[in-house]
Amino acid sequence: MPDRMASSFSASDSSEIFARRLAASGDERLRQALVAAVAHLHTLVRELKPTSLEWRSFISFLTEVGHACDGRRQEWVLLSDLLGASALVEEVNTRRPKLATPNTVHGPFFRADAPELPLGSDISLDGIGERLAVAGRVQDLDGEAIAGAEIMTWQANSAGLYENQQPDLQPEFNLRGTFRTDDEGRFHYLTVRPAGYSVPDDGPVGGLLRKAGLPLRRPAHLHFMIRAAGFETIVTHLYDGSDPHLHEDAIFGVKPELVCHFERAAEKPSWWLDFTFVMARSKQGAQS
Amino acid sequence: MPDRMASSFSASDSSEIFARRLAASGDERLRQALVAAVAHLHTLVRELKPTSLEWRSFISFLTEVGHACDGRRQEWVLLSDLLGASALVEEVNTRRPKLATPNTVHGPFFRADAPELPLGSDISLDGIGERLAVAGRVQDLDGEAIAGAEIMTWQANSAGLYENQQPDLQPEFNLRGTFRTDDEGRFHYLTVRPAGYSVPDDGPVGGLLRKAGLPLRRPAHLHFMIRAAGFETIVTHLYDGSDPHLHEDAIFGVKPELVCHFERAAEKPSWWLDFTFVMARSKQGAQS
């Protein structure tokens, strides 16, 4: 009986049978994503031939990753980052002109609610670490200043830890802030020099990838999200060019044009950094 | 600087860069699985070119699936089942002789702790539904009885619901039981005829796949896990051949040799079913 057979799929035609069932779907993009994802998933199963026990281990891993997520921890973002998927999503989406500042991955430590501060503020609320003065300019591709651009910054402390990893040890919003560029497109603030760090390896994602021998270090960096009406939002990092792990960033986020050299100052603050962010106009006013 | 460039991967060589980082790993199977999975994941990203917003939606979906899992609900197994992955894992693993009973997917409703009962027991603890008498025999490929084989069965009720979906409405362990075959390899028990059902569509997995137009019905069936020392464990279904959804089982679990015809009895119980399970010897004593 042919229609009885239709639901009994064999290893060779399984993804075609899946795709056929979706044909009537109304959401074309969802259908396209599911068909492509299932084709790869089935090919992977055929290639790897996981035993039932291995598949159950995989399900257990997903379950543990799910349970590791809470309001302060996003283990799925970490997995996406460490497998290079987040960097690749940025890569296939960013079609900016060569001179515009490129995007990198967002990372799991962003908080949207960091307070807006006056220019010149010190975002190190505990004052621990080597002092760093950050100044910068936001401009368009023609070099024209972008006034009133919103600069959100977040970073690890001098021990390589973000405040939302240490809610009991660091002050809330330590090393985070939101600024606005002045009429010349400039901004500046005080902070401390961040340390590089290992990505969290106390959860299921870090545990698995450590076991696989994957480097879990991130070179020292500052995070920035820069928004201005009519321009593509920049979500990027600035890297400390002296960090020994620059060539093996755990989340594949280093791009040569984002590597900076912190300059030693003759007097306090000890270090300074000046960087120019270049924004590309958004297509049809939409922000990415 | 070449080693600075090494961590900045482009869309075309991203999975090779990932694979190279894993080369020193000690766990060869894990390395193989990660390299293959990441190659497919990166190809999928290159093919679909998800926007950042779409990728965040995907991360949100994973997060919701994770949060939908608890002690009674395994949403990851459901996802694996509905994408055909679970059926395919069984398919690539089961290399049984043609006459042995094939495996199907395990499904999310199994409980390992169902009580052991004397042969002839009634596993319908609320007595609701059309009565069904199940009898069977467990034998090897030569037709020799397997005495003392463990039969675990579980099924939905006459409304298509398992007791662990309705902890407040059905008695604990309703329509579940563990039996042992007698000296002739036979077993029998009383139950009710199960109804087909829709897989749970109130969680993120069912919600997404319903939106994609995927059939979410499972034809009526009984579940069995059969274990005996020296034989490969059978985990399988017996299907009601009269079910109109037999050709579009949501989890791709129907195989022609597992389709049964419940016979109408002249007197009570109203229906009966007799099925012979054929076990293959395990390789080197290992159970799958």
UniProtKB/TrEMBL annotation, chains A, B:
InterPro entries: Catechol_dOase_N, Intradiol_dOase_C, Intradiol_dOase_core, Intradiol_RC_Dioxygenase. Residues 126-277 form the Intradiol ring-cleavage dioxygenases domain. Residues 27-100 form the Catechol dioxygenase N-terminal domain. Its cofactor is Fe(3+). Keywords: Dioxygenase, Iron, Metal-binding, Oxidoreductase. Pfam families: Dioxygenase_C, Dioxygenase_N. PANTHER family: DIOXYGENASE, PUTATIVE (AFU_ORTHOLOGUE AFUA_2G02910)-RELATED, INTRADIOL RING-CLEAVAGE DIOXYGENASES DOMAIN-CONTAINING PROTEIN-RELATED. Belongs to the intradiol ring-cleavage dioxygenase family. This is Protocatechuate 3,4-dioxygenase beta subunit.
